[in-house]
Amino acid sequence: MRFRGKEHEHDEGTARIEAFSDGVFALAITLLIIEIGVPVVTSDESLSYELRHLWPSYAAYVLSFVTIGIYWANHNSFFRMFVRTDHYFLMLNVFFLMAVAFIPFPTAVLGEYLVDDPDRKTAVAFYIFGLALPATGWLSMWVYARWDNLIDETLHPDYLRFLTLQYFGSSAVYLVAFVIALWQPYVGLAISAGLTALYLLPPRPRRYIDAAPEELL
Q1: pLDDT of residue 50 exceeding 90
Q2: DSSP assignments along 108-140, one per residue
Q3: Is residue 1 assigned to a domain?
Q4: Which of 42, 105, 178, 204 has its CA 20 to 30 A from that of 168?
Q5: What is the pTM of this model?
């Protein structure tokens, strides 16, 4: 039996992937604030009023920033579980990063139309769709990695099953939130925000097959 797979914690095979991914995360987060334009003051309103009027954009910015930040924080740890990569896995990671880079657009749409009653449902549903895309990309990478045996075989099967259920569950929650948003946009948005809040909690420690009993508690 192999021990823990510590030799994979700084696997050069994923170093370039992680470096490129970090760049995409940084770009996506930067674009979030760029999408909030400087308000134009009219003769009827003051600058302070226009700045307060941008509150939907601020709220959307914070939620999206935290979401992308969570993906960034977990991406490095996520890749430490893989002993190797292949072409198809890299392409799935490209899709995931494309989805992350897409988030600033639905964020801007939500900020612009959240208080617009005729288009609120469309804006919220589109925003949730934008959040669901990277979750789907993440799930796709995980499912493929398990199928193609890219994951460190010393990780405990129970831990792997837990992660699989977690990733499938996240995608399912976004799907439910999307459907609900078509009728009750604020409820759908609250569900999505709640899922993001859950991921702010510390992740479950990894379990290894050869771990001592006290390490599994």
Answers
A1: no
A2: HHHHHHTT-GGGHHHHHHHHHHHHHHHHHHHHH
A3: no
A4: 105
A5: 0.86
